[in-house]
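User: I need a structural model of rRNA methyltransferase 1, mitochondrial from Arachis hypogaea for a docking pre-check later this week. Nothing fancy, just the predicted structure tokens so I can convert them on my end. Input:
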Amino acid sequence: MGVTKVGSERPEFRRWNKQENWGRKTWKEATESTVPKIVGEGIYGVGPVLAALSAERREFYALYVQEGLDLSSNNRKKKDKKGFEKVLKIAEKVGLTIKDASKHDLNMVADNRPHQGLVLDASPLEMVKIMQLDPVSVDEGKGSLWVALDEVTDPQNLGAIIRSSYFFGASGIVLCAKNSAPLSGVVSKASAGSLELMELRYCKNMMQFLVSSAENGWRVLGGSVSSRAISLDEVEPGPPTILVLGSEGTGLRPLVERSCTRLVRIPGNIPSDLDNSEVNDVNHESSGREFLSFLAVESLNVSVAAGVLLHHLIGKNSAGSLPDGYTQTNSSE
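Assistant: Understood. Predicted structure tokens for rRNA methyltransferase 1, mitochondrial:
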């Protein structure tokens, strides 16, 4: 009778097949399984979420709140705490589904942008098509101004322009139907939530919109660094105006520029009377004036330029038009 040795049988080995995962989840599967599935688009940050819920211009699907968030922390601004509490109160009032989510998962939804523990799943904003502005009437308010944006594609710039427009009391924003940044959560965040409150329109032909509006009595001012542009100091605030701004880097398209009744530039500390030969000859022995022209930035960022132009054109007349509680130091973003 033979004796069977314990452990003498060799185990069966299988060659690894990359089609098999041996019962384990991949990193992508493990992370994606907990990340909220956004039905519409994610609006994040206390200010934008509160503005969206208050304006009721979107359809709401769910509100995601960071689990374990300590609102009593001294590091959180008092205004942010109040805004957070208002968000929860409105969400409960309208019967919105509130779900807990980890900070990591909210980071994934917000693409690692600061969300302050809140992400709102909501439908995209809808804009109204516009062909032209109505004819100017005697009842048209002094300082009435619309901002027309010619192919502004950077969402941060778009959001900042909308924020300045809302702060100074512009009547609304007109965007190109094509080649404009989509009205995403990034834009809403950059606008500190004012995207949710601003009057928004779009046009298929910016040139036709400007020409038709000018025929209806609107002054059309195009922001430009062209030598044909007059200084902002020479522009009188008051008449109903469309302020036209172009994209970062390229500015206004030639046909759009020609559709303006006047071009305007912001005067800066940059000499404009040096010709190309003088600039090409700049060296370490050149005067400070020549170096200033050679090294200086030619123009302001489009969102900064928008703020300067808006302040001159309507800023002094808009002090009483701001919403209650909205000040220049509003940072609940």
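Before docking, keep this in mind: Confidence is low (pLDDT under 50) at residues 274-279, 289-296, 319-332.
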